[in-house]
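User: Here's a structure from my thesis project, written as C-alpha cells. My advisor, Dr. K., wants to see whether a designed sequence matches the one we expressed. Can you design one independently, without my sequence as a hint?
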C-alpha cells in the first residue's frame, strides 16, 4: 500500500488515523499530528497530468468523460444558436418598429411583414 490517501470532511486534511506509507518510513496521521503538513510531504513527489489520468482511468470513466464532453459541446452549440436567434429577432423587431413609425398604411406594413417572414 504505497501512498494511499483519503480526504475527510475537512477541506485539506486527511481522515484521522490514516497510515501513509512513504518509501522510507510510516507516518500516522491523526488528531494533533499535523495531518495537513504530512499530506503535503507525502504527495510532494506526485505530479498531476490530466492526459495521463484519463489514459490510466477505466473504460467506464472514459465513457463518462466523453459523454460530459459531448454534452458540453452540445450545450455551447445551443447557447450560440439561441444568441444568434435573439439577435435576428431583435433586428427584425427594430425594423418593424421603424416601419410602423414611418407612417405607412397598414396594408403596406402587412405586405412588408409577409416579405420579412418569407425571408426567414
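Assistant: Designed independently from the structure alone:
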Amino acid at each position: 500500500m504505497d501512498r494511499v490517501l483519503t480526504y475527510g470532511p475537512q477541506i485539506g486534511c486527511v481522515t484521522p488515523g490514516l497510515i501513509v506509507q512513504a518509501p522510507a518510513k510510516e507516518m500516522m496521521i491523526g488528531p494533533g499530528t499535523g495531518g495537513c503538513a504530512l499530506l503535503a510531504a507525502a504527495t510532494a513527489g506526485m505530479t498531476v497530468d490530466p492526459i495521463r489520468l484519463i489514459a490510466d482511468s477505466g473504460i467506464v470513466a472514459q465513457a463518462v468523460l466523453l459523454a460530459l464532453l459531448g454534452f458540453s459541446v452540445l450545450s455551447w452549440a445551443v447557447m450560440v444558436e439561441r444568441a444568434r436567434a435573439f439577435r435576428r429577432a431583435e433586428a427584425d423587431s427594430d425594423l418593424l418598429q421603424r416601419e410602423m413609425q414611418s407612417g405607412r398604411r397598414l396594408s403596406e406594413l402587412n405586405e412588408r411583414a409577409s416579405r420579412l417572414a418569407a425571408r426567414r
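When you compare it with your expressed construct, this may help: Helices lie at 35-42, 50-56, 59-101, 106-119.
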